Amino acid sequence: MRMLVSGSHGLIGSALVARLEADGHSVHRVVRDEAAEGEAAIDLVGRRLDLCGLPGGNLDRIDAVFQFSGERLAPVRWSPARRERVRASRVVTTDLLARAIAAADTPPAVFVSASAVGYYGSRADEVLDESSQPGSGFLAELCGAWEAATAPARDAGVRVVTIRTGIVLAAASPLIGMQLPLYRAGLGAHLGSGRQWMSWIALDDEVAAILHTALTPSIEGPCNLTAPNPVRNREFTEAFARAVHRRSVLGIPRVALELAMGHEVVNDVTLASQRVLPRKLTESGFSFAHPLLDDALASALAGRGPGPGEGGDSTP
Question: I want to staple 262 with a disulfide (CB 3.0 to 4.6 A). Which of 61, 77, 125, 282 is the partner?
Fold first, then answer.
């Protein structure tokens, strides 16, 4: 099959491309620079999508489109300029691809477009699935606009899946990369009260679930990509510490987080409570390789190698 992937150099996109190529599919990338043969080029400022590099110069020979472009959300503050870059990288990219899909004489069978559990906002202990109402705040509104940008493809009769992803656990993920040195030094800390829910997923399961949604005709619309066992932040912190054979007794108060990242990032991302369940995935028969946090963290950390004092039986 021929696949078009936007965001192919990001954490999820690069893993997805590797899996597609390993499975024998032809992968075409959407790039921001000048397109080489077999690639499409996107200009976010000019709001243009150049398909000339693709076979036939259009999407008629593409079987599926995956959209995973998006500038990093945290931990930097959301200035007005950054808000616009974050929005354009998601919403404009999705809109241009959706319009190109709708314009194709023989459009792709499916359009799988990224979103995030940020769609639900911060909801305390409420259990959330795909039928739950959207939340409030910049991130929730962004996710709503991101998903709405797929409308041209859906209106043209193409099956559209919007992927609401949780925190992705992988060796190369920003979460692991930023926090691992602290945990290895015994400085891992829960955030705020530590009672907020975290919805996570192992990268292997994320990629497998993306492909599952693309190949399962019954899945349409929003689909949560989270493990079936969300945890509170304190539980996550303790599990992370266990994974590197350390203890976690520290906590970072909200005020310190807000001084570092700003109120909005802390409220919408860092301390947001999202207890999200993957109802559509489980009902469609998807099987998680890493449904439990300890196993998912062990798998993610295995890709980074042991640190000083790790790998033994004692816990300093």
Answer: 77
